[in-house]
TrEMBL record:
Xref: Gene3D superfamilies: Hypothetical protein af1432
PROSITE patterns: HD
HD domain span: 18-132
Reaction equations catalysed: P(1),P(4)-bis(5'-adenosyl) tetraphosphate + H2O = 2 ADP + 2 H(+)
Keyword Transmembrane listed: no
Originating gene: yqeK
Protein name in UniProt: bis(5'-nucleosyl)-tetraphosphatase (symmetrical)
Length: 188
């Protein structure tokens, strides 16, 4: 899929704020691809499309999990976990994206996983540090990436914050998030 078509798809579907976030994730991801020798075209496309299913109806998302034979464990989770896998399935089966790296980066952008490709890592982190984000500690994370170039350490720290947040709010933790936390704890 060409960049122009991806932008049009997302612009037509998402609220303005989320569309702008998506574009900033894509821009941040391209900068990171330059820095870490990633594939700028792939990360840009994945960045534009990663939140495509963010506001899809939950009942529809559950239907798509079954239709596209995604992990049935996803059915125990809400849109925060589902929107990545569902967006990847829609891009693969309904919009003809064949690039596995782009699809994986969209699929895993919220949870991460162990042994991510560079494209996945970049989208996972870019989503967290794009310039519109202002959560506590995000500046340290930007320094970790753009000055210290510690990509795996950033992935570990983001996973750690996510797990802490979920525990403190009595939310379930999707197994891939734990898998990501453990793997990058040893890689960092
Ligand atoms: Fe997302
Ligand atoms: Fe996002």
């Amino acid at each position: 899929m060409k960049k122009k078509r991806a932008i049009k798809l997302v612009e037509e579907k998402l609220p303005k704020k989320r569309f702008e976030h998506s574009m900033r994730v894509a821009e941040t991801a391209v900068k990171m691809a330059d820095l870490f020798n990633g594939d700028a075209e792939k990360v840009e496309l994945a960045g534009i499309l990663h939140d495509y299913a963010k506001y899809d109806d939950l009942a529809l998302m559950y239907q798509l999990v079954t239709k596209y034979e995604l992990d049935r464990e996803l059915l125990a989770y809400n849109s925060e976990i589902l929107h990545g896998p569902v967006a990847a399935a829609l891009m693969k089966y309904e919009h003809g994206i064949e690039d596995v790296e782009v699809l994986q980066a969209i699929f895993n952008h919220t949870t991460g996983r162990k042994q991510m490709t560079l494209t996945e890592k970049i989208i996972f982190v870019a989503d967290y540090i794009e310039p519109g984000r202002n959560q506590p500690g995000v500046d340290e994370m930007r320094t970790m990436i753009f000055d210290e170039k510690k990509l795996d350490k950033a992935i570990y720290d983001i996973s750690k914050r996510t797990v802490k947040f979920l525990l403190e709010n009595d939310k379930c933790i999707y197994p891939r998030t734990i898998e990501c936390l453990n793997y990058y704890n040893l890689e960092k």
